[in-house]
Specification:
With about 300 residues, the protein is of the alpha+beta class. The chain has nine helices and ten strands. The chain folds into two domains: about 110 residues, no CATH class; about 190 residues, no CATH class.
């Protein structure tokens, strides 16, 4: 009988049993398989921890992946958060490159989007040097697709509202009630940014609001919504409106270090979607998410995920 070739010996061990006497290719294969399985196990555990609000969907999806039933049906995500969970969840049958891609997506779009509140300095230094009253922050941002069509980064606006109670008197029940009110007022709401400056200043009730609006009517309507969060009424004497004759073209350039650089556009016109609302107070390590429409804050009191792009 003719002696077996080296390639034949390696192929006798297709499963890569490490106890066999097959060549180094088999040992390498089983090592890769074990590495991928261990990686997948750890990765999926991290995905579950970061996306606890999608637990029910992930349980069904994990069961689907493990099932050998030929008639099994893949569960369908009900919202953007579950779509992201499915995109990140590791399937043992996938290749190394797909596994690394899923890890990259998870690290860049899930983990990095759920940090502690960021003020530019450590929260301990911030609260030791600056005292902030309890306040509610409303955040609005332009859709990325709309900004991309305009050739710019998304426009965003933040409105901070003073919450008049002392922090030691605030209860979770109150915050949940406020979260429901904000969700009813602002989920699906578009803030129209323009070139006119609108302000609302009421020192007695703790309001010092301002933003760039398209019209005086829009600004009054928006401020009325903000005031209603704490059952306050709009006062005409607290409102001011101003417009400039200057045309904000967005085509301003300056020469910096010998190169012509385009300057950021001042007062860009855009429609901004409501994204989330946070409760801030002195001493809180992390702001409390009241309302979330993005899927970023899995512990928000009110989660109303949008279905658009």
């Amino acid at each position: 009988m003719a002696p077996k070739k080296k390639q034949d010996i390696v192929n006798e061990n297709p499963l890569g049993n490490p106890d066999s006497q097959a060549g180094p290719t088999s040992r390498s294969s089983v090592g890769n398989a074990r590495l991928i399985n261990e990686f997948g196990s750890v990765h999926n555990r991290l995905v579950r921890q970061a996306m606890r609000d999608s637990k029910e969907f992930l349980d069904k999806y994990d069961e689907y992946l493990k099932s050998t039933d030929p008639n099994r049906r893949e569960p369908i995500p009900k919202n953007a958060r579950e779509k992201l969970a499915r995109l990140c969840f590791f399937d043992p049958d996938e290749s190394v490159s797909i596994a690394l891609l899923k890890a990259t997506i998870f690290n860049n779009y899930v983990k990095l989007n759920v940090p502690d509140s960021f003020y530019g300095i450590p929260y301990t230094d911030f609260h030791n040097t600056i005292t902030i009253y309890p306040q509610i922050e409303l955040y609005f941002r332009e859709l990325k697709s709309s900004a991309r069509n305009m050739g710019r980064q998304p426009v965003h606006s933040t409105i901070n509202v003073r919450y008049r109670k002392d922090i030691e008197q605030v209860t979770e029940t109150e915050l949940r009630s406020i979260a429901r009110e904000i969700a009813n007022l602002f989920v699906g709401y578009k803030l129209e940014r323009g070139t006119g400056k609108a302000t609302y200043y009421d020192k007695v009730n703790g309001y010092q609001l301002s933003y760039f609006a398209k019209s005086k009517t829009d600004a009054k309507s928006f401020f009325t919504k903000v005031l209603s969060i704490q059952n306050d009424s709009f006062e005409e004497l607290a409102f001011t409106w101003s417009e400039k004759d200057h045309v904000f073209s967005g085509n301003d350039y300056k020469t910096i270090l010998g190169k012509r650089q385009k300057m950021p556009r001042k007062r860009p016109v855009a429609d901004l979607n409501f994204r989330h609302a946070l409760f801030k107070a002195n001493g809180l390590r992390r702001d409390i998410p009241l309302v979330d429409t993005t899927g970023i804050f899995d512990d928000a009191y009110e989660s109303r995920y949008r279905t658009g792009p």
